[in-house]
What we know:
The chain is built from four helices and two strands; from the N terminus they run αβαβαα.
Amino acid sequence: MHASLLAIFHGVPVIAVDQIRGGAKVSRHLSKIGYPVYNAWTLEPETIAAALESVQSDSFRTVIETARAELIRQARQSLETATTLILDELS
Length: 91
């Protein structure tokens, strides 16, 4: 999850694979920013090959840019919420 988020932030295409059935951290977080996630337990070699081709395409740049913008928006919102909660506790 962390490597995927870091790659997306820097605009680097990544094939995100959730290895925990039921959508643990990887699916939960990347789905919130609109980034595709594959499930390890259903992956086929053809799917990985297609995903690799997809992330290298020019059209995938839009997916990365959109996910990056949403990642930044959510991170800033979380920081603002946390700061407000802390300041409320101090007053």
